[in-house]
Automatic annotation (TrEMBL):
Protein name, entry field: Lysophospholipase L1
Keyword Signal: yes
Superkingdom, taxonomy of origin: Bacteria
UniProt xrefs under InterPro entries: SGNH_hydro, SGNH_hydro_sf
CDD domains: SGNH_hydrolase
Signal peptide extent: 1-24
GO molecular function, one term: hydrolase activity, acting on ester bonds
Statement: the UniProt record of this protein carries the keyword Translocase: no
Domain SGNH hydrolase-type esterase per the UniProt entry, residue ranges: 98-266
Pfam families: Lipase_GDSL_2
Keyword set, alphabetical order: Signal
Organism of origin: Pedobacter xixiisoli
C-alpha cells in the first residue's frame, strides 16, 4: 500500500517536473520569438539613415551574378542607356534607391548591389542615395521623391515598393516625376516579395500586386528585376527556407526570419538578380532622352508633393522644434528639418489647396493621440480603401471619425509614418484638430507588448501630435 502511494507520488512529482520543464522551454521559446519580433520591429521602424552611403565598407558582402538562369528573372526592355554611357566614359554618377524597409535596411540587398555596381566600374566615381523608409509605399514615395532623391540629380533610380502597397497610381507618379525632372535619368523597378509569393513564382506566374507594376514597366519600357524568383526556385527544390528562426540548424539557405525582410543570405540572392541584369544591360549604352507618353492611369500621382509645415496655418498651441536637439527624434532629422508639436486637445492646423489628395508625414510614439478632419467646414467620415494605404473621405453627414496616430509599432519607440485622404477634385480648405479622446493603447499593443505601458502609464496617457511634412496632390493656395 505504502509502496503504491510512493509510486503514485513519484509519478506525480515526475509529471510536475516535466510539466514545468516543458513550460519553461515554451516560455523560453516565446521569449526568443518576442525578442526577435522586437528586434525586427525596431530595425524596420527606426528613423532615417544617412542619405548618402558608402557600399565599399568592409561589412558589405560581395556578390556575383551567380549561375541562376531564367527568362523571367529580369526584363531589359530599353535598358539603362544613359547610366552605362556615362559609366563607360568614367563620368561621375549618382544612384538613388527609393523604397520601403527592405531598401532601407543594411545588407538586405541595397549595400550588396551598390557594391557590385561600383566594382563593375571601379574607376568611375559614384554616389549612392538611400531613400528607403520603412512601412511606406508608392503614395508617400510619390510625395517625397523630389526632396529626397531628385534634387540630387540622379543618373539612375532603383524603385522598390512591391511588398509595401504596390499602388500603381503612385508608381506612375514616381516615374513621371523622374522624367519630368530629367528625361535622361534611367529607372529600374525592383520587385521584392513576401511569404506565399514564392509559390506563385515557382508555378510560373507573377504575384498579382507585381502584375500592376509590370504593366507600367512595359508601358514606359523600363527594366524590371524579379528579385524573388531565384529564391522561389530554390525553395521549390528544397534548398531554401523562406522563413525560419535565426537559431535554426539547417544546411539549407535561410532567406528570412520574418517572411519579408531578408537576412544577409537572402539579401545576397536579391542583389545577385540585380547583378545579372546589369551584366546583361551593360551593352545598352547611349545618350538618350526617355519619352514621356500620356499617362496610363488617369488618377496617377504625378502632382504629389511633400511640403514643409509652414504652408499650413497652425494654432497658437503648436511649438516648433529641431529633431537634432532631442535624443529620441535625432533619427528623423534627415527627413524633417523641423517638426511641429501639439500637446493639448483642440489645437489645429489648416490649409487651402486645389487638388484631390491631402495628408501628412508624422512621427508616431508612446504619447501620440488622435486627430479629427474637417473638409470645407464639415467633419469627415473616413473609410479605408481596400488594397492601398490611401483613405477615402466622405462628407455627406456630420458624423466624425478619429485619425489614430498610435499603432502596434509605437511601443516605447518612435517611427516615421504617413496618412492620406482622397477628396473630390477641386478647391478645398482642410483642418486637422487634436482630439481629446485617447485610443485604447493597451489593447492596440496587446499582451506581448504590455510591459512598458503597464510600468509607465503616464507616458502613454497623452494626446500629442507631431507633424513633419504636409502632403498634397495638387497645389497649395493662399488662405482667404
Amino acid at each position: 500500500m505504502k509502496f503504491a502511494m510512493f509510486c503514485k507520488s513519484a509519478c506525480l512529482l515526475v509529471g510536475l517536473v516535466l510539466s514545468l520543464a516543458c513550460k519553461a522551454q515554451k516560455n523560453t521559446q516565446m521569449s526568443k520569438e518576442t525578442q526577435e519580433r522586437e528586434r525586427l520591429i525596431a530595425a524596420s521602424q527606426a528613423g532615417a539613415l544617412p542619405l548618402f552611403f558608402d557600399p565599399l565598407v568592409p561589412a558589405t558582402p560581395t556578390v556575383t551574378p551567380g549561375t541562376f538562369s531564367n527568362a523571367n528573372d529580369f526584363l531589359v526592355r530599353k535598358g539603362l542607356p544613359n547610366f552605362f554611357n556615362k559609366a563607360k566614359k568614367k563620368q561621375p554618377l549618382v544612384i538613388g534607391y527609393i523604397g520601403g524597409s527592405i531598401t532601407r535596411g543594411i545588407n538586405l540587398y541595397r549595400m550588396q548591389s551598390a557594391k557590385f555596381i561600383q566594382e563593375m566600374y571601379p574607376n568611375t566615381k559614384m554616389q549612392f542615395i538611400n531613400a528607403g523608409i520603412s512601412g511606406t509605399g508608392t503614395d508617400l514615395g510619390a510625395c517625397r521623391i523630389q526632396e529626397q532623391v531628385l534634387q540630387y540629380k540622379p543618373d539612375l533610380i532603383f524603385v522598390e515598393f512591391a511588398v509595401n502597397n504596390a499602388f500603381a497610381e503612385g508608381m506612375e507618379g514616381i516615374i513621371r516625376q523622374i522624367w519630368k525632372a530629367n528625361p535622361q535619368t534611367d529607372i529600374c523597378l525592383l520587385y521584392t516579395i513576401y511569404s506565399g509569393q514564392t509559390k506563385t513564382y515557382a508555378s510560373g506566374k507573377i504575384p498579382p500586386n507585381i502584375l500592376g507594376l509590370e504593366k507600367l514597366a512595359d508601358y514606359y519600357q523600363i527594366p524590371s528585376v524579379h528579385m524573388g524568383l531565384e529564391a522561389s526556385m530554390l525553395e521549390k527544390e528544397d534548398k531554401l527556407l523562406w522563413k525560419a528562426p535565426a537559431e535554426t540548424q539547417t544546411d539549407k539557405i535561410i532567406f528570412s526570419n520574418d517572411g519579408t525582410h531578408p537576412v544577409e543570405a537572402g539579401g545576397n540572392l536579391y542583389a545577385q538578380a540585380i547583378a545579372r541584369s546589369f551584366v546583361k544591360m551593360q551593352d545598352y549604352a547611349e545618350n538618350k532622352n526617355h519619352e514621356l507618353p500620356k499617362p496610363l492611369l488617369a488618377d496617377n500621382w504625378e502632382e504629389a508633393k511633400m511640403l514643409a509645415p509652414f504652408v499650413a496655418q497652425f494654432s497658437k498651441g503648436w511649438t516648433k522644434f529641431d529633431p537634432n536637439g532631442l535624443a529620441d527624434f535625432k533619427q528623423f532629422a534627415g527627413w524633417f528639418p523641423y517638426v511641429m508639436k501639439a500637446e493639448k486637445p483642440g489645437e489645429y492646423f489648416t490649409f487651402k489647396f486645389k487638388g484631390n489628395m491631402i495628408g501628412f508625414f508624422d512621427i508616431g510614439g508612446p504619447e501620440v493621440g488622435q486627430l479629427t478632419l474637417e473638409i470645407d467646414g464639415m467633419k469627415a467620415t473616413i473609410q479605408k480603401q481596400a488594397g492601398t494605404l490611401v483613405l477615402k473621405t466622405q462628407t455627406e453627414n456630420n458624423t466624425e471619425d478619429l485619425i489614430n496616430r498610435f499603432n502596434f509599432y509605437c511601443n516605447n519607440r518612435y517611427r516615421g509614418q504617413a496618412e492620406f485622404f482622397e477628396l473630390a477634385d477641386g478647391i478645398h480648405t482642410v483642418k486637422f484638430t487634436v482630439s481629446d479622446i485617447i485610443p485604447d493603447k493597451k489593447q492596440i499593443l496587446g499582451e506581448s507588448q504590455s510591459a512598458d505601458i503597464t510600468a509607465n502609464p503616464a507616458k502613454y496617457n497623452k494626446t500629442v501630435a507631431y507633424i513633419g511634412k504636409i502632403l498634397i496632390k495638387g497645389e497649395i493656395l493662399p488662405m482667404n
